[in-house]
Amino acid sequence: MSATSAQCGHTVHRSGFVRQAWKCACTVAMAWMLAACAATTSPRDEAPALDVVTLNLWHDREDWPHRQAMIEAELRRLSPDAILLQEVLQDERLPNQAQALADALGYHAFFVSVDATDPARRYGNAILTREPATLRGFRRLQPDGAYRIAGWVRTNVQGHPVNLYVVHLDFEDRSGATRARQIADLMAFVEVTRGDAPVVIGGDFNTTVGTAEMAPLRARFVDAYAAAHAGVAVEGDAHATLNARFNPPARIDRIHAQQGAFGTAQARRILDTPDADGRWASDHFGIWARLPFAPRLGD
Question: How far is the C-alpha of 141 from the C-alpha of 267, rounded, in Å?
Fold first, then answer.
């Protein structure tokens, strides 16, 4: 892919890039898939809306081929417009996980990593979209030594341009200071790339929404899950996105929608139950959200 500009520490790419050719192995059918397909999802209203999912893949832990089949089946059933992925891995024996899912589902994938492009092993985030990107880019978040990156894609959904950003913030600095710097850097990246299109930011924030470092997002963005469950104590264990089977429960995976750009959200957890064999799709639960576009002048 060819970079068309590099400014403010980020790189922007235009559509027409050559996709990396990774092919995923065929997955076996499972009883869990059949059960998942039987579940229902809200039919699309006539009003244009963005359906978006965020999910931490947990890289290649705990039998990735089995988990891949679970994730692929649920994403196929939901058929979202965009998928925001974290902890995406590729190495000598593992095709890029995001590209494998995109190939299986018929999506366009954009993978970003702080790792150089030549090593076989790369780790990062990805954005999958049904429609091709019209613009895309990334920014390595400060502080540099935390090895975190934000990815960005602008695409079209039902005739509406939308900016999608994926992040996976620091978890080691318990004070929150490192995340605060990363969020400030993310906000600066958003400002120089967003244009006039609405903004959605999703991912693994490694902190709950009420912490001090999240203040810049709270000021300008709506927590889609909390908005969809207004009046409910969503910070309780029943709404956690960290799987209690592997981690202390907390709601750290979220989708944040620009204030005023969308109507009332629908949102829920996904991939939050084990399959018939007792296996989990990830050590995180995913979040699905439907964000109706606010009417535009002339609509």
Answer: 28
Residue-wise pLDDT for 183-225, tens only, equals 999 999 999 999 999 999 999 999 999 999 999 999 999 999 9
Domain range list for the chain: 50-292
Strand 122-129 to 266-270 pairing: unpaired
The pLDDT value given to residue 10: 52
Phi-psi region of 79 (alpha: psi -120 to 50; beta: other; left: phi over 0): left
Sheet holding 3-7, edge to edge: 3-7, 10-14, 135-141, 148-157, 160-168, 199-204, 253-258, 221-223
Q: Are strands 10-14 and 108-113 parallel, antiparallel or unpaired?
A: unpaired
Identify the burial level of 286 via C-beta atoms within 10 angstroms of its C-beta, where 0-12 means exposed, 13-18 middle and 19 or more buried. Answer: buried
Q: Residues 244, 200, 38, 96: is their CA dihedral positive or negative? A: negative
Mean pLDDT of the chain, nearest integer: 88
What's residue 203's pLDDT? 99
Question: Which CATH code is given to the segment(s) 50-292?
Answer: 3.60.10.10
Q: What backbone phi and psi angles, to 5 degrees, belong to 276?
A: -65, -20
More confident residue, 192 or 10: 192
In a 3-state reduction of DSSP, which class is residue 66? helix
pLDDT for the residue numbered 53: 99
Q: What's the pLDDT score for residue 296?
A: 74
H or E stretch at 286: strand 286-292
